[in-house]
Write a structure and sequence with these properties.
Layout: E1 2-19, E2 25-45, E3 48-53, H1 58-61, H2 69-81, E4 86-92, H3 103-118, H4 125-135, H5 139-144, E5 148-151, E6 156-159, E7 167-172, H6 179-189, H7 206-215, H8 221-227, H9 230-239, E8 246-249, E9 256-260, H10 263-274, E10 279-286
Parallel strand pairs: 3-4
Antiparallel strand pairs: 1-2, 2-4, 2-5, 2-10, 5-6, 7-9, 7-10, 8-9
Helix pairs in contact: 2-3
GO molecular function, one term: ATP binding
Pfam family, one: GHMP_kinases_N
EC number: 2.7.1.148
Length: about 290
């Protein structure tokens, strides 16, 4: 058996630009990844199959396998590489669904990494990234699991900065936030957005992390809050947590995050937010 973690993906910032001819938005973002998240396990089998377990499995169990990005990723990799065997795939769903932390994309990236090992495939990083992008704009970045500047619609990746040791507290107030409606609200509210630009985010100490967060933004945050005002409550609670360096919504929501210089601060914040009945998780970050 081969196991791969599909870590939670966080947009430290997310600048959204115009819609491209292919219907996707230009964007500029810095993706970082927690150490914890969903888990993918794969074992040899005659056919490709998918089983789902874990605390958030119920949201996906009644869907046909073809509706799950993990299953489609496995099929697509097998077709591309001429694989004639299969794999028994298990997805341990520990992250909320439709939550803005790249769950589906991270899961797809993890199953690609796992199956390359299981099937002993010789496929280059560039080819695997192109295959990933055909599944979803965030998948190429999720393959790397390291800080990465993302432009285009998600297909252009550049190595991100080396950050100081950071912990993160993620919180989801229990509202689904499908990506499509949030982007449509953005399009209606900002009909002529500027071309998005990446922030250099040079941050070798915590003062610089705070400054970089202060000069960047998530362009979708206001539109998600309009749809679910409880997101503002979650951000405010995180920002007021002792030791928090900055707080913001990730992706299209509804998961929000705060950055901390210590494990203790992140764990304490997660416990306080869980006491409100919200899902929360503390994790170290991959900072290089």
């Amino acid at each position: 058996m081969i196991a791969e973690t599909a870590p939670a993906k966080v947009n430290l910032y997310l600048h959204i630009g115009p819609v491209r001819r292919d219907g996707l938005h230009d964007l500029a973002s810095l993706f970082i990844f927690a150490e914890d998240g969903d888990v993918i396990r794969v074992e040899p089998a005659n056919d490709i199959s998918l089983a789902i377990e874990g605390p958030f499995a119920d949201a996906l169990k009644n869907l046909p396998p073809e509706a799950n990005l993990v299953f489609r990723a496995a099929q697509k990799l097998a077709r591309k590489c001429g694989v004639e065997t299969g794999a028994a795939i298990t997805l341990e769903k520990n992250l909320p669904v439709a939550a803005g932390v790249g769950g589906g994309s991270a899961d797809a990236a993890a199953v690609l990494r796992a199956l390359v090992k299981l099937w002993s495939l010789e496929i280059g990083e560039a080819a695997l990234s192109r295959l990933g992008f055909s599944l979803g704009a965030d998948v190429p970045a999720c393959l790397a699991r390291a800080p990465v500047h993302v432009t285009g619609a998600g297909e252009i990746l550049e190595k991100g900065p080396v950050l100081p040791a950071l912990w993160i507290c993620l919180v989801n107030p229990g509202v689904d936030m499908p990506t499509g409606p949030v982007f449509r609200a953005f399009d209606a509210g900002v009909p002529a957005p500027a071309t998005p630009v990446c922030d250099p985010f040079r941050a070798v100490n915590y003062t610089q992390v705070k400054a970089a967060m202060a000069r960047t933004r998530n362009d979708l945050e206001a539109f998600a809050i309009e749809r679910a005002p409880v997101i503002r409550d979650a951000i405010d609670a995180l920002a007021q947590a002792p030791g928090a360096l900055a707080a913001r919504m990730s992706g299209s929501g509804a998961t929000c995050f705060a950055l901390f210089p210590s494990r203790e601060g992140a764990v304490r914040a997660a416990a306080a937010l869980q006491a409100r009945g919200w899902w929360a998780m503390a994790s170290a970050l991959h900072v290089r």
